[in-house]
Write a structure and sequence with these properties.
Blueprint: H1 2-14, H2 16-19, H3 23-37, H4 40-50, H5 55-77, E1 83-85, H6 89-100, H7 105-125, H8 127-134, H9 137-159, E2 162-165, E3 169-172, H10 178-195, H11 201-215, H12 245-251, H13 253-278, H14 291-308, E4 313-315, H15 319-324, H16 330-343, H17 347-352, H18 355-370, H19 381-396, H20 400-417, H21 426-442
Antiparallel strand pairs: 1-4, 2-3
Helix pairs in contact: 3-16, 4-5, 4-6, 5-14, 5-16, 7-12, 7-13, 7-14, 9-18, 9-19, 9-20, 10-11, 10-18, 11-18, 12-13, 19-20, 20-21
């Protein structure tokens, strides 16, 4: 009777019959999404650790924010979409804000907090729709491709395949180094699994590389029970509430906070549009069901990610795996959230995964994001050059922000000087001017 009552509650709350799904289908879809997304528990802490964030706390904050924000998405928006610290956003946090600019990670968390507040205001006021509509499709595509190249560049450095060189800036590293060889093994294995459409390919590749590394003696082997399962849950003590709001404010809203917000705005919006279409949540008139609730959830999740001590959360395209498995409601997301919480018990295993095992997924994610480049209109040079500058400047300057700046500014001036000023909206000019001011301030 209790099982029937609980199923009846889930039926009513998530509107399962109305969506043409069942509890069993939704739970299986949740498991599928979790398997596809679980790699973030390994990758994100390693990236944040490069920024100086304590790794154990980064593991805890990554899992907790993924679980809670995904739970919110399922319960509040009734979307079969999982959230976690975003790839690209975490690289921007660690390698540009903390690396290139040299800011302390607590200041970067302060910037994430402000970007979450700004994104929430933009969502509530519907300004975010105006901003998104003002950016031409070519630049939207180029932004994703550029971020993909930047992520791949970070991954290639992590494998040791590319190293610094005083004459040519970068060059090929030694493929005979154990760490590089292990990374190449993981890259080829994971790529082959992805080519065969194996669910959880990235997670399998990370685990296989780690095990092989243990067998060959490059990584410590767990010897006691506590090395595998936590006797006490990992905690966020070293990161929780450590955001430096004053430091972020003093450094400057335009230079970091603005960029965090813009990246999150387009990254999350593009992902949600794709996922909602796949889940048949788009009405005949083109309106997306509960879109404002989903965007509000993402904004609130960003605010709490800063409080917990991790980079910006965003909706994950890996949710498409669960949607393909039949997930249509928030029960899928709730299942993912529960599985994230269960994974806290296995946190010690995450700490055993070496950085070179989590580098290949960055390259593969970059390759996936690069696939969109065919949608850029290079035939029209007033579109092609801004898109190219957006893409190329991100990896070569190790800055997503610089890619945005050169892409937006060149678009505004190219269109105007080519006799097409009407194609540049007032909002695009405002954004471009803001980027120019930012560049001049940093000169």
């Amino acid at each position: 009777m209790q099982v029937q009552a609980s199923q009846s509650f889930l039926e009513r709350f998530f509107k399962l019959s109305e969506k043409g799904t069942t509890v069993r289908t939704e739970v299986i879809a949740g498991f599928t999404t979790f398997i596809a997304l679980a790699y973030i528990m390994f990758v994100n802490p390693n990236i944040l650790a490069d920024a100086g964030v304590p790794k154990e706390a980064a593991v805890a904050s990554t899992i907790w924010i993924a679980a809670l924000s995904t739970l919110m998405m399922g319960v509040f928006a009734n979307y079969p979409v999982a959230l976690a610290p975003g790839m690209g956003l975490n690289a921007f946090f660690a390698y540009y804000v903390c690396g290139v600019l040299g800011l302390h990670w607590t200041v970067a968390l302060g910037a994430v907090f402000f970007s979450g507040l700004l994104f929430l205001i933009l969502t509530i006021s519907h300004v975010r729709q105006a901003i998104i509509n003002a950016v031409p499709q070519n630049l939207r595509v180029a932004i994703g491709v550029g971020i993909g190249l930047f992520i791949a560049f970070v991954g290639l450095k992590g494998t040791g395949l590319i190293v610094s060189d005083p004459a040519t800036f970068i060059t090929l590293g030694s493929v005979l180094k154990p760490e590089t060889a292990m990374s190449l093994f993981g890259l080829v294995l994971t790529g082959a699994l992805m080519a065969r459409d194996i669910q959880g390919a990235i997670l399998i590749g990370i685990v296989a590389t780690t095990i092989l590394s243990m067998v060959l003696g490059y990584t410590p082997v767990p010897h006691v029970f506590s090395d595998v399962i936590s006797t006490s849950l990992p905690h966020m003590g070293e990161t929780f509430g450590k955001l430096d709001i004053v430091g972020a404010w003093n450094y400057g809203i335009l230079s970091i906070i603005f960029t965090f917000t813009v990246v999150e705005l387009f990254d999350n919006m593009g992902t949600l549009i794709g996922l909602t279409a796949k889940a048949k949540l788009v009405k005949k008139d083109g309106e997306i069901e509960n879109l404002d609730k989903a965007l509000n959830t993402d904004a609130v999740g960003t605010i709490f990610s800063a409080i917990f001590g991790t980079s910006t959360v965003t909706s994950y395209i890996e949710s498409a795996a669960g949607i393909a498995a039949g997930g249509k409601t928030g029960l899928t997301a709730v299942t993912v959230a529960v599985l994230f919480l269960v994974s806290l018990l296995f946190a010690p295993l995450i700490g055993l995964v070496p950085g070179y095992a989590t580098a290949p997924p960055l390259i593969l994610v970059g390759a996936l994001m690069m696939s969109e480049v065919g949608k850029v209109n290079f035939a029209d040079f007033t579109d092609g050059l801004p898109a190219f500058l957006t893409i190329i400047m991100m990896p070569l300057t190790s800055s997503i922000a610089n890619g945005f700046a050169f892409g937006f500014i060149s678009f505004a001036f190219m269109k105007t000087l080519a006799g097409k000023p009407k194609e540049v909206s007032p909002i695009m000019w405002l954004v471009s001017i803001a980027f120019m001011i930012n560049l001049f301030m940093r000169a």
